[in-house]
Specification:
This protein is an alpha/beta fold and 286 residues long. The chain contains eight helices and eight strands; from the N terminus they run E-E-E-H-E-H-E-H-H-H-E-H-E-H-H-E. The chain has helices at 70-81, 96-110, 140-150, 155-158, 161-179, 206-209, 232-248, 253-268, and strands spanning 11-13, 22-27, 48-53, 89-94, 118-122, 192-198, 220-225, 282-284. Strands 1-3-2-4-5-6-7-8 form an eight-stranded mixed β-sheet, with helices on both faces. It is globular, with a radius of gyration of 18 Å. The N and C termini lie far apart (42 Å).
Amino acid sequence: MTAGIRRDRWIRRLNPGGEPRFRLICLHCAGSGPGMFRELPDHLPADVSVEAVLLPGRENRIAERPYDRMGPLVEDLADALGPRLDLPYAFFGYSMGAQVSYHLTHALRDRGLPLPRALFVAASPGPYLQREVPAWNESDDSLVAYLRDLGGTAQNVLDDPDLLDLLLPTLRADLTVVATRPYRARPALPMAVRAFSGAEDGPASPERMGAWRMETLGAFRQTVLPGGHFFITGSLPAVAGTIASDLAELPGPCAGDAAADTVRAADRTPGIQTPVPVRPYRLETP
């Protein structure tokens, strides 16, 4: 782990108290933080611990330099999460967070650590698709224009130079993580994947979100919701309800571990590559 970064700074539990049976680890979008998930626990069972990742460069880690490359981010995050993998868990990644959750899951598998029981990904196309990320290496004015076009940023933030001075360096670093992320074909993951997409989200259209089916040997399902990139703002109860339903259907611990062992064995065998499946999937609209 990077020197000076404590494990307890990486995770914020949003519904403290009680004895959880399951962890839902949430990974935020570019320029955001745990606050984007603050209302999620209100719509999930009380025994699901909702735990949001807090990356450097925001909130009470504002003084820390944000990551601008996927590799170091994922390696340090895997170190930080290790002690929290004592319970069954799933990842929920939104936009940048979806790509981070994908690379993080592969990093955990490479280390032989417990894998998530499911991946919930939103607003980011399948990893093998190249996504154009506007303005990540352009001027601050271009970056602000990108924010305005994308939506989801409060107008008072866009109109306040001091707030923009705080936001833009972290946002630019986050977008650089997405724009420069590596992709190489790897054995498909063993857990179920659920993709959420906004019907009017051009860069992460329902068709491009459907490409996540290539990354799993498990079940793939997709839910299309009204709205653009930040569809979660108006559809949080629907998203949370779907997550809760999927968690209730998960198999017991042994099923996921056996599938993970099979994939790891194939990954270690020289000259053998696990084919990436094209699997039927269910497209859902609430």
